[in-house]
Amino acid sequence: MQNSFIEQTASFVKERLKNAESGHDWWHIQRVWNNTKLLLETEDADRMVCELTALLHDIADSKFHHGDEQIGPRIAGEFLLSIGVDATTVVHVQQIILNMSFKASLGEVSFHSKELEIVQDADRLDAIGAIGIARAFNYGGFKNREIYNPEIPVEQHLTKEAYKNTQAPTINHFYEKLLLLRDKMNTPTGREIAAERHRFMESFLQQFYGEWNGER
Ligand code: ADP
Ligand code: NI
User: Fold this and answer.
1) Which residues form a coiled coil (predicted)?
2) Which tens digits make up the pLDDT trace of 120-139?
């Protein structure tokens, strides 16, 4: 039964995200789902809640729905109820989706659970390392941002509003978010993987500045 719910959800999400922008496309979901399964090997939690949430966490991005932060949880909940998932599981999945994003974590977060910790780590791992770098420049290009501008200072601890409204070059995003994630990881395995990916980003930045300054 559980596996059938997960399979049906995967098909629903894959179909719905067919034309999604590439930061939150099916491949992002598949990577987060895989990261979730990896973390579940060493963490004790409700596997179905974790996998369903990994699959549904970006079903509708509030950025593209006039900032409506309820739309993702609503669509996820309607779908899960329609295939017969029990109400307790559905509410738990909705709570996690509402509270797990980096943006949400800059505001007031009132909900916590082991399952949230796992899926949040899985999502954060996809925002750092080589994939994280690729996604950041892809997003910056989509927004027509500069890759870097040494005249625009870097800000480290933006408020939720400032984070949402920043127009800064993509390199700044490393300091606004990517390099902060390592110390926000919830699970031991997540922390280990994040540490490696963090080092990779640091070495990328060092190389980037070197090339920028015309060093060989
Ligand atoms: P979250 O849902 O955790 O708040 P986002 O939806 O903001 O994450 O981000 C989706 C992807 O786009 C991530 O890989 C993120 O790092 C990247 N991204 C978000 N904002 C920016 C930005 N200002 N510049 C570059 N990349 C960004
Ligand atoms: Ni995501």
Assistant:
1) none
2) 999 999 999 999 999 999 99
- Ligand number nearest CA of 170 is 1
User: Does ligand 1 have an atom closer than 6 angstroms to the CB of 101?
Assistant: yes
Distance, CA 170 to ligand 1 centroid (Å)? Answer: 10
DSSP string, the chain: -HHHHHHHHHHHHHHHTTT--GGGSHHHHHHHHHHHHHHHTTS-S-HHHHHHHHHHTTSS-GGGTTT-TTHHHHHHHHHHHHTT--HHHHHHHHHHHHH-SHHHHHS------HHHHHHHHHHHHTTSHHHHHHHHHHHHHHTT--S--TTS---SS--HHHHHH----HHHHHHHTGGGSGGG--SHHHHHHHHHHHHHHHHHHHHHHHHHTT--
The answer, yes or no, to whether any atom of ligand 1 lies below 6 A from the CB of 23, is yes
32 Cα: distance to centroid of ligand 1 (angstroms): 15
Task: Judge whether 114 lies within some domain.
Answer: no
- Please give the residue range of the domain that contains residue 148: 127-216
State the pTM of this model: 0.92
Q: Is 124 in the pocket of ligand 1 (CB under 6 A)?
A: no
Within this chain, do residues 102 and 168 fall inside the same structural domain, yes or no?
A: no
